[in-house]
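Quarterly update from the structural biology core.
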Amino acid sequence: MRTSILIGILLLVSPWLLAQEWSTVPGYTQENGLIRAMEANEDSIVFLGVQLLEGEEHTYAAYSWNSQELHPIGPDSEFRGFRCMEEFNDEIYFGGNVKDYAGIDSADVIVRFDGQSWSSVGQGICLTTSILHDMQFYNNSLIVCGMMDEVDCNDSLAWYGLGQWTGDSWNPIGGVWGYQPEALVEFDGLLYVVGDFTTFSLDNTYVNVINVNNIASWDGENWGQPQFGVNGTIYCAIVHEDKMYVGGYFSNCSGTSCANVASWDGESWEAVGDDLQGDVYALAFYQDQLYAAGYNVLDEYWIAYFDGYNWQNVPGCNLNNAVHSLGVFNDHLYVGGNFTQNGSMAAPGLIRYYLHPDSVQWGEPSIVVDVPPQENKMSLYPNPAKTVLKVRLDRPVKGLIRLLSSTGQELLQKEITPSSEFQLDISHLSPGVYFVYIHEEEYLLFESFVID
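Predicted structure, tokenized:
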């Protein structure tokens, strides 16, 4: 009898135990290294950084992990490091601070690997203090960005922060004045460069420049800016479905209030929550939720996830230092940074998180509490609706009507004159659940409807 009861208890508890778990990556033990970036494909995830240790004698700048084994990439890197990688023309390009990497004299910030040997990219990039921050394949060429000021070690090809490798030669494509570009991402046919800069050179001179706010876009020929940009540094950018998401340290996106994370749909900016506090260095979508990581991003924690309405701390995450990179591979979220502990668990700069899809927690829209009893009633029809929604009230009202999506995005807000019946054009909205709110003095009326 006791045995059957125990088995029953274990069957009830075990799904909860398996719902979420933090664990280390077997074989990775370097406490002094720093993983700055991650790149994942179907077969493996690559960790890029500085002083990533293999045993006690060799130091590498990159490792590949296939969920079972950890393999170093390339020769000993001494104190050099990688920050980005990209596949181009059947070769893999690695960028960062790689001076003399693999014995290549002209390797300063970028090298390439064809599967058998390492080589320079042109005559290299020469400068005194240089780091390649990111690279992106775009329009049949490789675009790079970082702290750089000269290509092919030739003063006639001086450029600032940006460059294009065609496969045969380097070309300047414009540059930033101010501080530095941090990341590149392609979205909706355009290449975006983000970072910490306020002036952009269209032709690498001080003459033909435009004022920008930490983000610029390129269509292969011309540079522009999405609206008025943001008012602070952008450290990272990713694309998910039909939006680009940026993270950094800013509070305003072209007139829209936003707190360190925002999305751009090609036409307008939208805040993603309003309660992140610290610098966001990395973004990733895991189990269809957006994760942000960096330095004290939320309540002195280093990672948070967005539940559709608010940012939340990740259960079981209690890291002791900053996070610099996020990656998703084989149902796990990988986290890299300066930390050495996750609570009582030793976590030498690299840790992973598993969350069962059935355990994903979504938030609910905030609803005004302590609302007096409704003295008016609202009905919506037809429900489900297709192109037009009719709103009927028991008595005429004068107030404010709002239309919200199921994620809390405001789609419409306007004043209404005294009326007991009116209609809304919903022909442009996608199928889903929506909410209609009417604010009438101290009363709040709300109802939901469906578009099929």
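The first helix runs from residue 2 to 17.
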